[in-house]
Amino acid sequence: MIGAMSTDAMFYGLRSRRDATHRQLTAGDGFTYCKSEWMESTRDPLLSPTVFLVEQPPGSCLRTHFHAQNEFQVVVQGSGTLGPHALSPGLIHYATAYTGYGPLVAGPEGLSYFTIRAVFEAGAYFIPEHREMLQRGPRHQFHAGPVVPTDGAPMHLNAHEAQVPEPLAANADGSASAAAIRLGPGAQACLPAFSLSVAQFVLVLEGELQCGNQTLGAWESLARTERDAELYVSAGAAGALAVVLALDARDSRYTDLPAGHSPAQSVPASTQSKNPNDT
To answer: What is the CATH number of domain 14-147+255-268?
Structure first.
């Protein structure tokens, strides 16, 4: 079953799931965008790997907000800004729970990015109206990349040539980190163990990546939860470019939100069917 956990504790985020879940949504403030889930998730409050794609139309603005879980975001198409930071394909953003960020403003060609979390969460807390929902505890964020050449030049690695891993950024204790792997046609790489994190995600940006019996194309992904295990992957005939993201657990100093409070929910556009996972 697509997205289901296998015996080796891996989830897959596949384009076929995107085609089944793509829809247009409108937030309470009128912000309209498209969203699609790429990785089927449980609702486990401790570990439920989640990958979804947000597509903002040209000039749209997602206001400053925060979430109750740690997350990565990876830009895959278009341009824009996140606060003062320029965005382009291959740019990576990490934010801990209860860390406000934004606004996210799409450029003239729109902006598409994946949101990646180790624990499922729906909705967002906007600032300033949800400021009272902020929890006391450490707040961190970092940016890395972009790992995709800004001039659009393709990868030029020889067959079986590998450039791995390329550390990009990490938090202070290394429990959350971003790295890039570049593989020539047929090249193989070993993904390291991640003992300080709860899950490791691999998102393919270009080419194809063979992971066990699963071939991942561009924008497809995997999440694995066996912390002390290595994983060998290999590139297809055109090579591969991917990011490797280790996600840490939410800091134990945060407490759960008071009963009766939940993130602001977006609602489907009138022509779309309602989905309980909308954010």
So the answer is: 2.60.120.10
Q: pLDDT tens, 249-273?
A: 999 888 665 545 567 665 554 433 3
In the structure encoding, which two tokens stand for residue 129, read together?
């109206």
Query: Is 0.90 topped by the overall pTM?
Result: no
Cβ neighbour number for residue 262 with a 10 Å cutoff? 12
User: 């309209």: which residue's tokens?
Assistant: 32
pLDDT tens digits for range 22-58? 999 998 778 899 999 999 878 899 999 999 999 999 9
Specify burial of residue 107 (Cβ count, 10 A radius: 0-12, 13-18, 19+): middle
Residues of the chain with CATH 2.60.120.10: 14-147+255-268, 162-247
Residue 159: C-alpha distances to residues 154, 162, 165, 189, 233 (Å): 15, 9, 17, 13, 15
- Bridge-based pairing of strands 188-191 and 231-247 is antiparallel
